[in-house]
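WARN  no MSA supplied for this record, continuing single-sequence
INFO  ligand: iron/sulfur cluster
INFO  echoing inputs
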Amino acid sequence: MTQATPHRPRLAVAGLTPLTSLDYPDHLSCVVFLQGCPLRCGYCHNPQMLAPRQAEPSEWAEVEAFLERRRGLLEAVVFSGGEPTLHADLAQAIERVHALGFKVGLHTAGIYPRRLQTLLPRLDWVGLDVKGPGADFDRIVGRPGMAAAHERSLALLLESGIRFECRTTVHWHDFDLASLQRLALGLAERGVAHYAIQMARPGQCLAPRYAEPGPGPWHADALASLVETLRPAFQRLELRR
Ligand code: SF4
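INFO  complex generated
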């Protein structure tokens, strides 16, 4: 009898960071960036990763070959993007990474909650991007209907018991300090224990106006002061510049 050949995942790989201690808490990891994202955040510093494309079979094979060589040296593999949950073969790739002995983390904006629900039992840690509060979410990502989807993903994560972090990238075009404070406290009230505030990187941005210098309220001291005000609301709160 002929045995079916196992299907290798096909994933459009946009890049790979071979070693980082920043992308999966308390673990040495690598990051696999997947091509394609339906959102259009003005501050996006990876505009070259947004357009989806067909994957070549060799792309994932090369990632697996890299992971084979890193067994015993790395502890975790993080899938990032782009929006990694866009990819139908992600679940299969996660299983193969587990079979190689690594933990698996996921960076996502939570815009495909049904796919996230399928992935959750396979994941060890999730970093969930919270783009903005309520109705501002869709404005910040440039696409309607995303806030409701993200809300379902946050609820799934809170119910799941899986370790996760919420993170918000802040740019002065999208936030003032008061709205950032409201967003953070709202997450804490929901039960989010780990939160990170990430400053948008100047320079290469999807929308050119996001490269303009910001006004006074984003002075470093004011933001640091807000973070200290928020600190008691979370088990872990980080400011990433
Ligand atoms: S910053 Fe926004 S547009 Fe850019 S990859 Fe992330 S979610 Fe997509």
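Residues 37, 39-41, 44, 46, 49-50, 81-83, 109 surround iron/sulfur cluster (CB under 6 Å).
INFO  checksum written, moving to next record
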